[in-house]
Design goal:
By secondary structure, the chain is α/β, with parallel strands linked by helices. The chain has 21 helices and 13 strands.
């Protein structure tokens, strides 16, 4: 599979203020754990190598945690190296062990469908042109034809159960009430086999992944050492957490997805815009191509003028544009301004408006609903009497127009034929979806 390089890919570049790519990825925070650092520095500074990262189709979209890996793949490609983007058609049928319980196994048909989705997403972040063009690979291609006997004889013989039991993901499950099935216990062998296959067919000598996957990453390096007598490398990126220790990219248990149908560009923009001052500089390093000098300048602004939120606005623009494109990001910014009375709500496209309203407290109501009732049902006021006072004081707006009468209804005031925006004061908003 190939794809033409987008304009965004053509303008991306690493920062030439660093001596080499290793220094840059270390400064940006991509390296939490790795095989020999000096050897990796030399390897990445030398002739082009082939390297890979794997993504399992355990959902119909990648998320922000996967974006760390995609950007590391891209940075190494910009340094001249050849990326392999692996989407796991076979490992996705199994699933790597979660810390507490067995995964629910998806059907082969669903996994195959999700493989296609993820391949499309991975393709957006890599260039398939030039001497170091990316390749997409699917591990189902080499696992499906293999018999169980061949798997045990050719691959399983290189593994020691004692070593497998010591892997963090396995030991955590062994100590849990759920235990671990042989299926998930075998996952590390499958991932190790991937690395061996890519080493043999593409001379792949580096695998990247999250540090929580370190046991699976080293499964591959160990297998290649045993089977081929050769040393290869791995880089484990840190798990991104907020300064308060909470897991990054999660909101009430929901991931921030790269698919716009699952997390809208508006929602993604707002997610980044709300980044805490304590986290924003680290996010700029990992998730953007903003150069070091500008990041250091923004760090000074965060320190001296945090109210400007310039770093947050830069972060939100850069990442949302990277994932969804500049046009969708501009629409998200326009929606944010219009919702607070600084732009024309009617000028927004319907999809962006709907996505923005779904991020607000919202209700579904009939087209003839009274504004007073909606103020109460959306929670903008605690009671009808409070709603009447708010209208009388001139503090209620329907689609950014001041509500002058307590008898006002939605009639004739719908946006796109089925939406309305209620605002109390300058900053308290709610959405209305008409039945």
């Amino acid at each position: 599979m190939s794809a033409p390089a987008s304009d965004a890919l053509r303008t991306q570049q690493n920062d030439d203020s660093f001596a080499d790519i290793w220094d840059e990825i270390v400064w940006r925070g991509y390296v939490h754990v790795s095989t020999d650092a000096d050897a990796l520095r030399a390897l990445l500074a030398g002739p082009p190598i082939t390297y890979y990262c794997g993504f399992d189709p355990t959902a119909p979209s990648l998320h922000l945690g996967n974006l760390v890996q995609l950007l590391l793949l891209r940075r190494l490609q910009l340094a001249g190296h050849r990326p392999l983007g692996l989407v796991g058609g076979s490992t996705g049928l199994i699933g790597d062990p979660k810390p507490t319980a067995e995964r629910t196994l998806n059907t082969p048909e669903i996994v195959a469908e999700w493989v296609s989705y993820l391949q499309g997403q991975v393709s957006k972040f890599l260039s398939f042109e030039g001497d170091n063009a990316a390749r997409l690979v699917n591990n189902l291609d080499w696992t499906a034809p293999m018999s169980a006997i061949d798997f045990l004889r050719d691959i399983g013989k290189h593994y020691r159960v004692g070593t497998m039991l010591k892997k963090d993901a396995v030991s955590a499950r062994l100590n849990s009430d759920a235990g671990i099935s042989y299926t998930e216990f075998s996952y590390q062998i499958l991932q190790g086999m991937d690395y061996l296959e890519l080493f043999r067919h593409y001379d792949c000598v580096l695998q990247t992944g999250g540090s929580d996957q370190w046991g699976n990453l080293t499964s591959g390096t160990d297998l290649i050492h045993r089977a081929e007598g050769t040393s290869v490398h791995a880089i484990g990126t840190p798990l991104i957490t907020n300064s308060d220790g909470t897991k990054f990219g999660k909101s009430e248990g929901n991931a921030v997805w790269l698919d716009p149908a699952m997390t809208s560009p508006y929602a993604m923009y707002q997610f980044w815009l709300n980044t805490d001052d304590a986290d924003v500089i680290d996010r700029l390093k990992v998730f953007t191509f903003v150069p070091r000098a500008e990041i250091e300048r923004l760090a000074g602004v965060v320190e001296s003028e945090p109210f400007r939120r310039e770093a947050q606005r830069t972060l939100a623009w850069e990442v949302t544009s990277l994932v969804h494109g500049a046009e969708a990001t501009e629409s998200a910014i326009a929606a944010s301004s219009a919702l607070f009375g600084q732009g024309e709500l009617a000028a927004l496209d319907v999809a962006t408006l709907e996505a923005a309203l779904r991020e607000l407290p919202h209700v579904t109501a009939p087209a003839a609903s009274a504004v007073l009732d909606l103020l109460v049902s959306t929670g903008l006021t605690p009671s009808l009497s409070a709603a009447r006072r708010a209208v009388a004081e001139g503090g209620v707006y329907l689609n950014n127009a001041k509500v002058a009468s307590a008898e006002a209804t939605l009639d004739g005031a719908l946006l796109g034929g089925r939406f309305a925006v209620l605002r109390r004061g300058k900053k308290t908003l709610a959405g209305v979806f008409v039945e």
